[in-house]
Amino acid sequence: xxEVYLDNSATxxxxxxxxxxxxxxxxEKYGNPSSLHSKGLEAQHELEYVRQLAANMLSADKxxxxxxxxxxxxxxxxxxxxxxxxxxxxxxxxxxxxxHSSVMEAAAKLERCGFExxxxxxxENGVVPIEKITNAIDQKTILVSVMYVxxxxxxxxxxxxxxxxxxxxxxxxxxxxxxVQAFGxxxxxxxxxxxxxxxxxxxxxxxxxxxxxLYLKKGARVLPLHFGGxxxxxxxxxxxxxxxxxxxGAAMEELPDMNAEMLKMRELNDYxxxxxxxxxxxxINSDENCLPYILNFSVRGIRSETMxxxxxxxxxxxxxxxxxxxGKKSHVLTAxxxxxxxxxxxxxxxxxxxxxxxxxxxxxxxxxxxxxxxxRAR
Length: 378
Known about the structure:
Layout: E1 4-5, H1 16-27, H2 38-58, E2 65-68, H3 71-86, E3 92-96, H4 101-112, E4 116-120, H5 130-136, E5 141-145, H6 162-169, E6 174-178, H7 190-193, E7 197-201, E8 212-216, H8 242-254, H9 258-277, E9 282-284, E10 294-299, H10 304-313, E11 316-317, H11 331-335, H12 340-343, E12 346-350, H13 357-373
Parallel strand pairs: 1-11, 3-4, 3-5, 5-6, 6-7
Antiparallel strand pairs: 2-8, 7-8, 9-10, 10-12
């Protein structure tokens, strides 16, 4: 039975080029990038090559790119690091109620430490109204953290409008964007967006788990969380995970044309919506203007966990939400005001360049079978 993998927002299949590059680094160019001998210099060259690749993708300067272990570490570094750096200039943090848990939980920790945290709710379409963001930011605001693409619904946030709001208020805020679900899918030019910090992760673009990147604008104030080395200009000390970083670089080079890929994803998303609409008990939760890589829906009366196990037995892999939540109730769906019955039965499918219409056919056939055979929740 052919495997149908539709959980690409959780992680993607490592592309062959990335896997080969990681193996090359582990078996041939295995030196420590900080070592001064030829093996170390060889490794350092590989590291800096990827740094330049990332800078080119973001239209940033090479010196503004830092390597991390992934989106969670990058988000924590900015949230805690900016709060520590600017706490004498204010104590207010503005974010949304639909951020990834690595931002939500970091913000909650700061709130317990005495910072004022504003969590902005989205509208029914999953987008936080720009008026709410405007009203929340003031001269006491030291951090604004808004994700580009929501990882559960695919809603695209108006991040390109926030820089002007911050500047107009005279706020000292560091403007951070979690771009984990946007990187490699939407064209990102950091200067045009006006961001001070941006985070991304390699394993969401067919790279290798354990590598991510942080863009930090020159002059942006973010203090390190860790100490003990000169690596990454002391912002992220410790020996770099070179195989994973170079795998991420290879995955960047392997990315298809974004415009062409977006057309393909829109076609897949529209096809999936049409197929799902043929199942009476299905309710589609993602707005039509969401990023087409992600589609969230509910099968009324069948709990998410029950449906996930049923689909897995059919060799079909989807998600009930963020993988980092490990099955806990979705704070995103709660913030959207989705009725409890729909929230309890929510399923997220997420596409990649390896996805095909045949995968959607198998998914919807299995959903129809489940709809007719599984016991409804009471």
